[in-house]
Amino acid sequence: MSQTIELALDTFGDVTQGPDGNRLPQDQVIRNVVEEAVLADQVGVDYIGLGEHHRDDFAISAPEVILGAIAARTSRIRMGTAVTVLSSDDPIRVFQRFSTLNALSGGRAEVILGRGSFTESFPLFGFDLQDYELLFEEKLDLFARLIRAPAVSWEGRTRPALKNQKIFPPLGPKPLKTWIGVGGSPDSVIRAVRHDLPMMLAIIGGNPARFRPFVDLYHQAYGQIGKAPQPLGVHSPGHVAESDERAREELWPGYKALHDRIGRERGWPPTTRENFEREADHGSLYVGTPETVAKKIVQTVKALGLARFEMKYSSGTLGHEKLLRSIELYGTRVAPLVRDMLA
Asked: Using CB atoms within 10 A of its CB, is residue 141 exposed (0-12), middle (13-18) or buried (19+)?
């Protein structure tokens, strides 16, 4: 029996190095992201996701604006976020931005909603981290209603109540596919099922098969409410090149720079080449030739029963030209290989 799979890419707009070895300004990185998405459309990638961050090492803070530019220059690729930090945003404004994007793109818009693994947006927009759980729970509840009804009544603690409120522009004939991004907690899995939304697992380290209990919980919870499960996806980092050695040598400096920058903020020790090689060989780093990457994707798809695999193709300072080549190989060679192996 064949297994249908979507092969997707995403990026946080990592601030890359230019040919002279210096970091590019964020405005250039943003223009480069548009070019990368256009190429992804041309080579057959199914979806491109842009992550929202508010810091100097990631250039994308307003993904919907960039997605609008991408919509105008592409014809088939689906597009959305990876993720939208709903907790520190207004769900009505998020809905309006994505219903507008859905109109611009002819129904190709999606959104992945999350609580955010980075917390810069909370003080930036005046939210208290002590309300982390409440903010996401209430705002997700409102957003889930907005995508399913032309008029909404809602009441909670985090914003004024709504009574039979219509929101414009409406979605029109094509719905807005909405995912919940999950880092790996049982409560997050149950939340996705309660709102009857697809779940995107962020797996950035270790053997992907260790997330199988969360997948089983997802299916069990759907069984208890008597509904068919929504699709499952996985987001993980990776890089594709002409040889395994070249892919690893290209990725390693940017991978280490990104890991160590975040590690200094969170109290992690610096990563080592040994850890990098372990992740490439046995963990959640999809790096190598198209054949190597395709085989590893297939293993993960089969282990977790996925409908989408989404590779974060940018990594720290890894340069734009190398990102373009990785995208090209992913679309023209990795994706067909994966589909052949699953057929």
From this structure: middle
Please write the tens of the pLDDT for every residue from 226-254.
999 999 999 999 999 999 999 999 999 99
- Scanning the structure block, which residue is given the tokens 């690729």? 77
Q: Give tens-digit pLDDT for 81-117.
A: 999 999 999 999 999 999 999 999 999 999 999 998 8
Query: Nearest to residue 113, comparing CAs of 148, 80, 146?
Result: 80
Cis status, amide bond into 29, omega within 30 of 0: no
- In the three-class reduction of DSSP (H, G, I as helix; E, B as strand; rest coil), residue 287 is classed as strand
- Region class of 273: left (phi > 0), else alpha (psi between -120 and 50), else beta: alpha
Tokens of 66: 């960039």
Q: Are 151 and 164 in contact (CB under 8 A)?
A: yes
Q: Which residue type does 151 have?
A: A
pTM across the whole model? 0.97
How far the first Cα of the chain sits from its last, in Å, is 7
- The CA distance from 334 to 89, in Å, is 36
In Å, how far are 46, 175, 197, 305, 327 from 38, measured between CA atoms? Answer: 12, 23, 28, 29, 10
Residue whose structure tokens are 């990102």: 323
Q: Which value, to the nearest 10 degrees, does the dihedral of the CA atoms of residues 2, 300, 312, 42 take? A: -20
The length of the chain in residues reads 343
Which CA distances in Å does 129 have to 36, 185, 313, 323? 34, 18, 30, 35
Which residues make Cβ contacts (< 8 Å) with residue 218, sequence separation at least 6? 189, 192, 193, 199, 229, 232
